[in-house]
């Protein structure tokens, strides 16, 4: 493999086309692989920062760009872009990202983990259902939107979810029902945590001001430990 810089924009094949994303490498240059899946805003500075934070924890992190370079500036624009990305289309693009990441010499794991937020949390679950044994750890943060799959029968990854008790976008009752559906249909290990916080509580750049630093710190620590323990 050609030498990689610590942080760079990359291209990779997906569904016969060139897809793009942001790759962050740890200081040592190698480590277990993690796919970082964006919110409905696009591949923002915040999502790049999440990839950088994972790299600082020793992971090789790839954040695919699901919107082809477009970033939303308000909720209406974000909702419109998300509506144009059906679950199967997004999951297929992300499948190319999984294969690309597993093909990097920098990636030391035979499987990858995945973490995503809002729409990306939904696609975390869709990708785990689609990719089976290739995904060993999946971390959805308040997973909603186009990406949420209908069936979890294909999931082989362990799941750690982070959901909000004050989430008006995805009421906690739905989150608890999702948790039970995943557990029943996949037969895998499923743990959901619930926080006294609103939707998007982890995003410190969220324009709605929903960021809750204490809940975000606890959830992040749990997520990093979970990924470290379950990607091999």
From TrEMBL:
Q: Name one Pfam family in it.
A: DLH
Q: Which UniProt keywords apply?
A: Hydrolase
Enzyme Commission number(s):
3.1.1.45
Q: Which domain of life is it from?
A: Bacteria
Report domain Dienelactone hydrolase positions.
21-229
The record's section on InterPro entries has: AB_hydrolase_fold, Dienelactn_hydro, Dienelactone_hydrolase-like
A molecular-function term among this protein's GO annotations: carboxymethylenebutenolidase activity
Q: What class of enzyme is it?
A: hydrolase
Cross-referenced PANTHER family, in alphabetical order?
ALPHA_BETA-HYDROLASES SUPERFAMILY PROTEIN (PTHR46623:SF6), CARBOXYMETHYLENEBUTENOLIDASE-RELATED (PTHR46623)
Q: What is this protein called?
A: Carboxymethylenebutenolidase
Q: Could you tell me which species this protein originates from?
A: Paeniglutamicibacter psychrophenolicus
